[in-house]
Amino acid sequence: MSRNQHSATGTRRDRAQSAIVGVALLLGLTVVGIGILTAAAGTVVQEGASTAATTRVAGGLDDALDTGTAAETEATIRLSGGTMRVTNRTVRVLNDSGVAWSGHAGAVVYESGNKPVSAVAGAVAVGNGDRSRLDAPPSIAPANGTLYVGVPVLNASGTDAVSARETTVPVTIRTTPTHERRLLSANRYRVAVETAAPGAWERHFRDQGATTSRRDFDADGTPSVVADFPGRRTLHLVVHDLRLRMEVGA
Fold this sequence. Notes:
By secondary structure, the chain is of the alpha+beta class. The chain has two helices and 19 strands. The protein has one domain. Helix content is 29%, strand content 44%. A six-stranded antiparallel sheet has the order 8-7-6-5-2-12, sandwiched between helices. It has a five-stranded antiparallel sheet with strand order 4-3-15-17-16, covered by helices on one side. It has a four-stranded mixed sheet with strand order 1-13-19-11. Strand 5 and strand 6 form a beta hairpin.
């Protein structure tokens, strides 16, 4: 066999090997690409499920803690993972002399992933710290020289925490409300709400014309957002004693 024949045969063999390597590389890149797309799709599905669960729980808590009724109410929230618990939170009304009123309002908190839901002082917040928002606003607003403050007080009994792991757990919240109204004379009033979602509360109060600050009254690590409403006002306070009972089951 001549040198040219050897050269042609070698060239064909090299090209065949190069083609095989090229196909293998393409297949490898395709497999890697499919893996990345699959992982991304899985992340999107998980985030979508988490968002749906958060929205469902936020809506359920808003319904369960409705203060606009005098009748016993009941709402069932289906948890798909996460934990729901009742925890301590305090609401204070301050004036120039000090504390005009305070109440252990309590809160219902749902935690799953990085977007907790908390219902406290008539509002439902999603998220923690500054990265939070209000899905349902509180009944706290100034109007015509009066500051109106509606505060639900949970007075919780029954189960204080429910965990749902790899299953769906129905949680029923029952409330039996009574309402007490008070009219406080003109003064410079501030409202302090203890919350793990201070960013959302601060934005809401500022939209109502208040200036805000943060203060940890009891040094437990959970701050209160203090809303200072300008000028002297009378204060119309409505305390909604909900007598809440949380139970597992529909």
